[in-house]
Amino acid sequence: MSLLGRGAVRSDAPESLTVPGCAVACVNDGAVNAIIHARLPAASGKRVAAIMQRLLDSSKFHADISHRGRMTVDDEGLSLHCMATADGVLLLACTAQDYPQRLVFPPAVEHSGSVGLLASIGATGAAASLPRPERQGITVFTPSTRVLQALERACADHEDARARDPVLKVKDQVDEVRSLMRDNIDSVLVNTDKLDELNRRLCRERSKATNLAGISQGFYGSARTTRRRMQWEDLKWKLVLGGIVLAIFLFFTWGWWFGGDDS
């Protein structure tokens, strides 16, 4: 059941949450009282809670955070971001390792326009529900439903990094433009290849047309020569036949033409 109430959007799939948990702790000379909120169900949530508890129980971590004021530790594929406040409160956020740190530790509120993930966790007032720690080591308290809802809201509001980070928005726009340009270049290259192929086809067709024109001219010349030869052969046979007919005619009419007797 979601802590955010009806209509709230939350995914309990471990691979889809970028902010799987948070914690608020009060520290006093090695004594730690903490509220740990793991947003994942079952074994995944216990693992996230154990990672945050182990960090809060580390004396080296307390020494480092008191010196630095804020730090990030990578552990088991997650990033643990911590910030110490002036009144001895530790704010802890567990995120995916690729989560932008500028959303966790914004450079300045007046410039970034966002208080950041840790500051939002601190603004829930969860630390006010913790008693002053006196016993050494870490004591984990079960928070009220109101505190859990406030912590869940702070984490859920920062779940979508792209909706809050203008750098990621610009990067997405650049990636979109780059993808569009890449698609356009690919289309131009494909069209160029098609034009080259079409040009090659036209060259082949033009070569075929040239060859056919040459063959046609050769056939026309051959047909004209053949026709003339056949016409000459026909004329020659006509002359031969005419000569034979003339010879026969002269043979039978020779005497009549050249003074023979009446008989």
TrEMBL record:
InterPro entries: Synaptobrevin-like, Synaptobrevin/VAMP, V_SNARE_CC. One of its GO terms (cellular component) is membrane. GO terms for biological process: vesicle-mediated transport. The chain crosses the membrane at residues 237-257. Residues 166-233 form the V-SNARE coiled-coil homology domain. Gene3D superfamilies: 1.20.5.110. Keywords: Coiled coil, Membrane, Transmembrane, Transmembrane helix. Coiled coil: none annotated. This is V-SNARE coiled-coil homology domain-containing protein. The lineage of its organism: Eukaryota, Haptista, Haptophyta, Prymnesiophyceae, Prymnesiales.
